[in-house]
Amino acid sequence: MDLLGIDIGGTKVALCLGDAEGNIIADKRIATTSLGGPDQALPKLVEEVGHLLRDHNRELEEIRAIGLTVPGPVSTKTERMLTPPNLPEWVDVPIVHYLREKLGRPVFIIKISMRIPLPLGRGGSIAPF
């Protein structure tokens, strides 16, 4: 089964599709500002995930889990983005619930400053080091 990574930042959103062995199958970057605020961005994000999967002949059912990094502060208890300073419109956003509901896969969130640096891009590996 494959894994999907979503990294939401102040300037870009990165999507990364990887296999169970830690190989990157595909990645995509989108300007965060092109997505708008959370009410517009979350449906667009789901749409972009669908495009990435279709472009690489994958189905959502083949995704084991989704790892999500977002700017802090976040509540891992309520799984919400609280008040990210670089995304001022994204206040108290129930992002994990939204993505789980729309994508039907397990979603795990971590604040960007706590993430483990992983290489993104063709030829890289998503396996921890």
Helix content: 10-25%
Give the CATH H-level superfamily.
ATPase, nucleotide binding domain
Number of strands: 7
* Low-confidence spans: 114-129
Strand arrangement, major sheet: 3-2-1-4-7
Strand content: 25-35%
Cα distance spanning the termini: 20 Å
| Arithmetic mean of pLDDT | 87
Structural class: alpha/beta
Contiguous helical run count = 2
CATH architecture: 2-Layer Sandwich
The number of domains is 1
Oligomer: single chain
Reported for the largest beta sheet, the result is: 5 strands, mixed
Shape: globular
Question: What would you report as the Rg, rounded to the nearest angstrom?
Answer: 14 Å
| The CATH C-level class name | Alpha Beta
CATH topology: Nucleotidyltransferase, domain 5
Order of helices and strands: EEEHEEEHE
Family: Belongs to the ROK (NagC/XylR) family.
Protein name: ROK family protein
InterPro entries: ATPase_NBD, ROK
Pfam family, one: ROK
Write the layout of secondary structure elements.
Layout: E1 2-8, E2 12-18, E3 24-31, H1 38-55, E4 63-70, E5 74-75, E6 80-81, H2 95-103, E7 107-111
Parallel strand pairs: 1-4, 4-7
Antiparallel strand pairs: 1-2, 2-3, 5-6
